[in-house]
Amino acid sequence: ELKVEQNPLFLSMQEGKNYTIYCNYSTTSDRLYWYRQDPGKSLESLFVLLSNGAVKQEGRLMASLDTKARLSTLHITAAVHDLSATYFCAVDIRGGADGLTFGKGTHLIIQP
Amino acid sequence: DAGVIQSPRHEVTEMGQEVTLRCKPISGHNSLFWYRQTMMRGLELLIYFNNNVPIDDSGMPEDRFSAKMPNASFSTLKIQPSEPRDSAVYFCASSFLGGGVGNQPQHFGDGTRLSIL
Fold first, then answer.
1. Quick check: helix, strand or coil at residue B70?
2. Å from A28 to nearest chain B CA?
3. What's the confidence (pLDDT) of residue A2?
4. What is the rounded CA–CA span in Å between residue B43 and residue A107?
5. How many CB atoms are located within 10 Å of the residue A59 CB?
6. Which of A18, A45, A58, B35 reaches 20 to 30 Å from B85, CA-CA?
């Protein structure tokens, strides 16, 4: 059974600080997804990471994938309040042919 | 472009009633997924379809749950009879698989917030 673990599950930080969210998964996969969810809202796709060593950046967020370590990271640089949300990583095994297995999410609060 | 459209957005009903949730995927997408989100269990995959054919329904919790996709633009998730423990947010998502496009993310609808009293 594929397991996806995120940590931390809850993070409170100040604006301007840097931090990293970690996502570990238990089964070989080279496809990992990061989503953002605002309270009461849908899930918004942030990044699709498709190969070992993949790195993608969008604004203050940067995601990377190490398939050998079965680890993905989501790094936040100089956090701003608007980034407050819950962030999920998700893994599929068969290249999109399966549904996603999600981590429990990291609830991020960025205080002014 | 219109995203994934789900209806209703909110549903409150009494235990024992039949509940039908509806989903219209993004035009051109050939894979459709139903997920359930609760505080206790997080996001769980219930069932998914590829080219309107159910591929894996192992996530469907009980026989009370059923899903259909009669055509490429419509799917339903039905609960009969409903129970209070079915209360959750149900999301539908769609994606395009194949055709050399490469991996695309699943696009989620706004969800149906279901409360069973």
1. strand
2. 17
3. 85
4. 14
5. 10
6. A45
Whether the per-residue pLDDT at A95 is higher than 80: the answer is no
- Among A23, A50, A98, the strongest candidate for a mutation testing the B interface, having the largest count of B CBs within 10 A, is A98
- Taking the C-alpha atoms of residue B107 and residue B52, their distance in angstroms, rounded to an integer, is 17
Where would I find the beta strands (DSSP E) of chain A? 4-7, 10-14, 19-25, 32-37, 43-49, 55-58, 61-66, 71-76, 85-91, 101-102, 106-111
**pLDDT for the residue numbered A54:** 87
Residues A6-19: pLDDT tens digits? 999 999 999 999 99
State both tokens at B91: 């999301």
pLDDT at residue A87 tops 60: yes
Nearest by Cα to B53 from B40, B37, B70: B70
Interface contact A48-B45, CB threshold 8 A: no
The HSE-up count of residue A51 (CA atoms within 13 Å, CB side) is: 1
pLDDT tops 70 at residue A97: no
Q: Which residues of A touch B110 (CB under 8 A)?
A: 41-42
Alpha carbon distance B117, B114 (integer Å): 10
Contact of A56 with A49, CB cutoff 8 Å = yes
In this structure, the number of other CB atoms found within 10 A of the CB of residue A3 comes to: 11
User: To the nearest whole number, what is the mean pLDDT of chain A?
Assistant: 92
pLDDT reported for residue A27: 85
Cα–Cα nearest to A76, from A46, A31, A42, A40? A46
Q: Residues of chain B whose pLDDT is less than 50?
A: none
